[in-house]
Write a structure and sequence with these properties.
The protein is mainly α. It has two domains: 84 residues, no CATH class; 63 residues, no CATH class. Helices cover 49% and strands 11% of the residues. It contains six helices and four strands, in the order H-E-H-H-H-E-H-E-E-H. It has a two-stranded parallel ribbon with strand order 1-2. The radius of gyration is 18 Å and the shape is flat. The termini are far apart. Bound molecules: zinc ion. This is Cas12f1-like TNB domain-containing protein. Keywords: DNA-binding. Pfam families: Cas12f1-like_TNB. One of its GO terms (molecular function) is DNA binding. It comes from Spirosoma montaniterrae.
């Protein structure tokens, strides 16, 4: 509304407020994570590459790059293990039997829960991916997902 009304100073103030809220959330979340855990493994999702796709807006909105950077320096300053691993196929690989049986392609992105056709495990897309990323971080190489 402020934008449409041409109120530039109001628009600037609103953007600053949103930016501060996001930064505050990022700080609180990363601080909690490094206090709670001894090892942090993150996927190497490239926010600069994603920014060029149609997911661009939601990526920069979420401030992923900032979040990862904060997590990294806080982990390092506390002496906690911090690793980034390749997360290719982490969402479609079954974290129980390692078969690539999950929903794939852009149309598959909307599927939040799926059942592995090989072992019958029921997966939440995000939890399954996190398990795969963590396992790679622990140094157990499996086919389809390689450590960096
Ligand atoms: Zn499976």
């Amino acid at each position: 509304m402020a934008q449409r009304a041409g109120k530039k100073r109001r628009v600037t103030a609103i953007h600053a407020k949103i930016r501060n809220k996001r930064k505050d959330w990022n700080h609180k979340t990363t601080t909690r994570l490094v206090r709670e855990y001894d090892r942090i493994v993150v996927g190497n999702v490239s926010s600069s590459k994603l920014r060029k796709t149609r997911l661009a807006k939601s990526v920069s909105d979420a401030g992923w790059a900032d979040l990862k950077q904060m997590l990294r320096y806080k982990a390092i300053s506390l002496g906690i293990e911090y690793r980034e691993v390749k997360e290719n196929f982490s969402t479609v690989t079954c974290s129980d039997c390692f078969a690539k049986s999950g929903p794939s392609g852009l149309s598959g992105l909307g599927v939040r829960d799926w059942v592995c056709t090989c072992c019958g495990s029921v997966h939440d897309r995000d939890v399954n991916a996190a398990r795969n990323i963590l396992r790679i971080g622990h140094g157990t190489p499996i086919k389809g997902i390689l450590p960096l």
